[in-house]
Amino acid sequence: MKNEYDYLNDVKMDFSMYDEEVLTEEEVYKMSKLKRNNKSIKKSIAVLGTAAVLAVATGVAASEGYIDKILKTISIGHSTIMQMDPNAPHSLPKELTGKLFDKDGNKLTAISEDDLSNIYDKDGNLLSQEQLTKLFNEALGDKVSLTEKKAPDEASWNTVDEAQDIAKFDIKCPQYLPEGFSLERAYTYKDSDGSISGYYMTLEYRDQEGKTFSVYERLLNDETAFEMSTDSNIEEMTINGRKTVIIDDKSANFETEDNVSVMIAAKGNVSKDELIKIAESIK
Fold first, then answer.
1. For each of the chain's 283 residues, which pLDDT tens digit applies?
2. DSSP label at 210?
3. ∠ CA 130-135-139 to the nearest 5 degrees?
4. Which H or E element spans position 232?
5. In 3D, which of 262, 140, 277 has the Cα closest to residue 203?
6. Which of 15, 27, 150, 222 has the smallest number of Cβ neighbours within 10 A?
7. CATH at residue 170
8. Is residue 262 part of a domain?
9. How many of the other CB atoms lie within 10 Å of CB of 37?
10. Which residue, 39, 10, 56, is CA-closest to 148?
11. Is 100 exposed, middle or buried (0-12, 13-18, 19+ CB in 10 A)?
12. pLDDT value, residue 5
C-alpha cells in the first residue's frame, strides 16, 4: 500500500492504491503545493466515498488560497507539516459555488464531514453519495477524476544493495529493528513510460505475524519540497540533532544532512519508544 511520500510531487501517479482511511487532507495539501508550483494536479482516484470527495475538493480550494484552520505548523527544512482543526469546515472551490445548499436553501461555501449527508441541490433535493460524487466530478473534472482507477507498476528488490543501484541518493537503513522484524523488500513506482526516477525509495520491514513498518525516502530539493497536513497530533522532537516531527505516535519525519527526507511509518505496529529508536539508528 502506498503512503504519504508516494504521491508528493509525481503527478503521473494516482491515488487508487489508497484505502479510505489514509486518503486524507495530507494528500490534498500536497496536490495544492503542486498547483501553486504551476504543475497539473489532475489525478485519478477510486470512488471511496463522500469523505474522499470532500478531501479532493478541499485540496482544490486550498490551491485557490482557501486554507482551513491550522492549529500548528512545523517546518523541518524543505518540508512543512501542519496540524489542522478536525472540526473546522472545509472551504469549497469556486467551481462548486451555487451548486450545494443546506436544507434551508442557503448556498454553501464550506462544509464539514458531518454535513455530507445533509447537502441539497438548488431545487431542495437531498443529494445521495452517488449524486454528490457525480456533481463534484462534473464541477472539478478538469482538475481531478473521481472515477478512474489504475494502479502504477512497482519496481521491487530483495536487498538494499540492489535498490541502491537505482536510487540517486544514499538509502538510509535503520540499524535498530524491533524484535522479529526484518527487511521484506525495497520498492518504488514506475512512471507511465516504465522509467524510474531514482528520487524515491521505500524500505518495508515485516515480522512473522505480518506486522509491518516502512521507511519512505526521497531526495529533496526545491522542486520536491512539500506540505503535509493532518488532523492528528504533531509533536516536535530533536533526534540525532535533527528536527523531527512525530505524528500521532505512529510516524517520524525528518531530513538528513545530505537532503534526504525520511518518514518512518509504523501504523501502530511498533511503540512510540521503538519508533524513536528506529529514527535514532538512521545515521
1. 333 333 333 322 232 322 323 323 333 333 333 333 333 333 333 333 555 556 656 655 555 555 567 888 888 988 888 887 777 777 788 888 889 999 999 998 888 777 778 899 999 999 987 888 788 778 876 665 555 455 568 899 999 999 999 999 999 999 999 999 999 999 998 877 888 888 889 999 999 999 999 999 989 876 666 777 777 899 999 999 999 999 999 999 999 999 999 999 998 899 999 999 999 999 8
2. S
3. 150
4. none
5. 262
6. 222
7. 3.30.200.100
8. yes
9. 12
10. 56
11. buried
12. 35
Amino acid at 43: K
On whether both 170 and 239 belong to a single domain, the answer is yes
pLDDT at residue 39 in the model:
33
* Whether the predicted model's global pTM rises above the 0.90 cut: no
Please indicate, yes or no, if residue 91 is contained in any of the structural domains.
yes
CA distances from 205 to 34, 177, 235, 265, 273 (A): 30, 9, 24, 11, 17
Q: Which of 109, 91, 100 is nearest to 131 (CA)?
A: 100
**Same domain flag for 133 and 167:** no
Element housing 190 (H / E): none
Neighbouring residues of 183: CB distance < 8 A, sequence distance ≥ 6: 159, 160, 203, 204, 205
CB 189 within 8 A of CB 195: no
What is the b/e burial string over 149-164, where b = at least 16 CB atoms within 10 angstroms of the residue's CB? eeebeebebeebeebe
The whole domain housing 41 covers 4-140
Spatial separation of the C-alpha atoms in residues 132 and 115, rounded to whole Å: 12
Q: The C-alpha cell of 160 is what?
A: 538494499
